[in-house]
Specification:
six-stranded parallel β-sheet; globular; Rossmann fold; alpha/beta; six-stranded mixed β-sheet; 11 helices
Amino acid sequence: MKAVWFERFGAAAEVLEIGDWPTPEPGPGEVLVALQTTGVNPSDVKKRAGAFPNLLDDGPVIPHSDGAGIITEVGPGVPVSRVGERVFVYQAQYARQLGTAAECVAIDTARAPLLPENTAFEAGACIGIPIMTAHRCVFADGPVADQWILVTGGAGRVGHYAIQWAHRAGARVIATASNEADAAACREVGAEAVVNHREAEWGKAVLDLTGGQRIDRVIDVEFGANLPELLHCVRIGATIATYSSTVVPEPALPFRTMMFMDLTVRMVIVYAMPEEAKAQAVADTQAALTEGALQHRIAETLSFEQMAKAHEVIEEGSVRGCVVVTI
């Protein structure tokens, strides 16, 4: 099969190799998926750049966790009826070497759930990290109906879906965005209002939009950088669910202030979600997709030969939405 892999850490154009790789065989409890698309996420490019020094200890890595395709074979213990199913794949390159940047992947049957017929494979490549992270951030701490939810970076990969999950569940959503095009994208999927997080004291501007009502939950893309402003607009007992802190990777917490506000900080990553949370995210995603209730913001769709460019687009940090490579 055709695949992309790396044997050393470094820049995408220098270390990503394209060539032939042995087609895997599905083992017990596994399915073989002929992939149509692979999704590229920040965690994928960070791994390739060397964020996990031991990653290559067991040999070369085919990157990427997310993708979508068709089951062509099943291993022992998996019903033959799964052959021919359209599926999305998540968590492919976690605690293992072989991800979705290839024509095929052999993976645990539970990591290849059914992709509804009305959903394109390009959208299927966005489900794993973006949609499931958003689902966990919104729902991990209970129902959100009638609550005020603030989604920072609402036009991004996770934020765009977080707005939709919260709005779909009956929450009132405020988002942040840095330009009018992104603000419009946030409003289109359910945000009542948008503030510009590039402007000073945007946390106080949030309260102007809510009529002084403080925020119940935050879904946050830049915890360290955003925390000072969040403290201006969240209520006593609020929850901040965050999935990234790139600008300030080691935040300093104003402990006394946060303690007296009785705040909860939840840190979210798909890999560490409880299995029941993953199952619920998958079920809710399948239901929403079947209804045609989720909008997808795909920023780039690139060819397999452009895999290095796909990584570079993510690293530039300017894209709003998912980056998908077709296979």
